[in-house]
Model the fold of this input.
Amino acid sequence: MQILKHEPAYYETTAFKWRQRIGFGISDYACNLAYLLANTYLLFYYTNCAGLAASAVGFMFVVTKFIDAFTDYMVGAMIDHTDTKMGRYRPWMLGGAPVLAVGMVLLFSVPTGWSAGAKLAWAYITYVIFSFGYTLVNIPMAPIVSALSPSPTERTKIATTRTVFSNLGSLTSSLFVIPMVYYFAGSEDATGAALAAGYRNTNIVLGLMVIAIMCLCVFNTAEINPPSKAAEKSSILQDLGAVFKNKYYIMLLLLVFFLFLGYLGMYGAMQYYYNYIVCDQSSMPIALSLLTILAIPTMVLAAYLNGRGIHKVTLMQFGAVVDVIGYAVLFFTSNGTIATLSLALIGLGFGFRSSMFFSMMPDIYDYTEWQCGRNLGGTQNALSGFVNKLSSASASAIVSALLVWGAYDSEAMDAALKAGQNLAEAFPRTQTAINFAFGGLSLVSTVLAIVVMLPYDLDKRYPEIRADLNQRQAESK
Done:
């Protein structure tokens, strides 16, 4: 258990609370730099720089998730049985940062002179390394919120700060990744090895940033609310049995899958959309910026409204309805201006969704502890993290499959684009595939995300559950 350096009164001060909120929040800035690099630019890098087939890459994204299933669970289980002077969660976040940074660089360092089979093998191996690094850093990030404070209101503020920084990470990616790639590539017209070098060097810079940020996070937070019972030995079957008795957790897993399937499917198709439908990749950073910036005020508004008594699930569902409207418009348009405005609307809705999503997770993990008497936040976040990665892989695989169905040929389309041809007339099936990947997948998955959360009523029950856990914690001292 973490040894605290100050008297209990210190941890109730406003200065400490803000240090903790920001110290923890910046962790998701680092995570989102890595996460969106992989989900926004990697498929395009593989097909257009490394020369890999979209079908092979889509299959790779799915296969590697079965390896993730094992590593995610093992890390989560080990976290649940960790007890150190630094606490339960922070050592994992600190140790995982360099692994994640190395994975980011290797991911975008496919040797372009190798054979197709050797390049694909490199993609498999490095994607596993990247995913493992992300697991080490990210799995502790949801359950640690319970340890940072026992107060539901303070947890919402911590989670909101996290989501604000998460979006700032997205904004950094939106504004600077493409310009950095072109800078390191030497030209906006760079292709092949030069463009590949641009992606690699960009990731070296961002990987170093990830390490520095995670160090700042770990050394500016404290686990002041330990579990009601110390870590104890239990079998895998016992842990899984306890986890899946929690009906709210089942809803959470379904929500995670559908929430990220739509969002990441849109991100995965975005570069293709602005490149070959809007025919203006330079407007993509503006669209991404609106998507991320406009989420921030609604995150803050959601936290305020939750503090005024509006339930978390109500705010999340409202945001989802706003997103459905945005995705519906996105699905039925190929106009760049309308698409960008739709993304702005989606950003507003996603601000409500993401803020409340991360605030609800500790409540759901507490419900498991209340049910079974053991804190299994690591295991639960590992399983939800795996579902997140499975959703990410599914989004990439679906986008890849749509590109295959649409007979996507980057060289032919780039040549037609330079020649000034009308791509809608020259490649109608490819255009349809990209448009559906960009908007249609998100529309369907967001509707399903609304449906799976309709029975959720933990917000009403949580005050009683929290009071019981506080009593158990007091009795265990």
Summary: The chain has one domain: 8-476. The mean pLDDT is 87. The CA atoms of residues 24 and 348 lie 23 Å apart. The longest helix spans residues 336-372.
